[in-house]
Amino acid sequence: MALAFLLSSKPFDQAAAWAALPADQRATIKSQYSSAGISIIVSAFGSTEEPTTQGVDPTSTANTMAQFVLNNGLDGIDVDYEDLDAMNAKNGAAEAWLTTFTQTLRTQLPKGQFILTHARQ
């Protein structure tokens, strides 16, 4: 199950609602989902945000988002990168941004312990 959306500035919608729950309630819900074989992840960005175009720092953003996953007992993160202007520029900036962001996330959320996915565009 993916909670939408975690933006570079703060969580919104389901991600914000999850973070606002008391820690014991999050743990209970997480346990129930885990018992049913369901992981809970947060979805980052979406069409609401264009991080490369907006000049968002990929390293600090990845560190902040990884900390959100850790602080809120989540199983991982889905990167829904939709900065189409940056991708369509075909100058390598989007790819470089996304590579740095993903590598930093993986450092903070180790493979085998956390889920890290990218939504297809």
Automatic annotation (TrEMBL):
InterPro entries: GH, Glyco_hydro_18_chit_AS. One of its GO terms (biological process) is carbohydrate metabolic process. It comes from the Eukaryota. GO terms for molecular function: hydrolase activity, hydrolyzing O-glycosyl compounds. This is Chitinase.
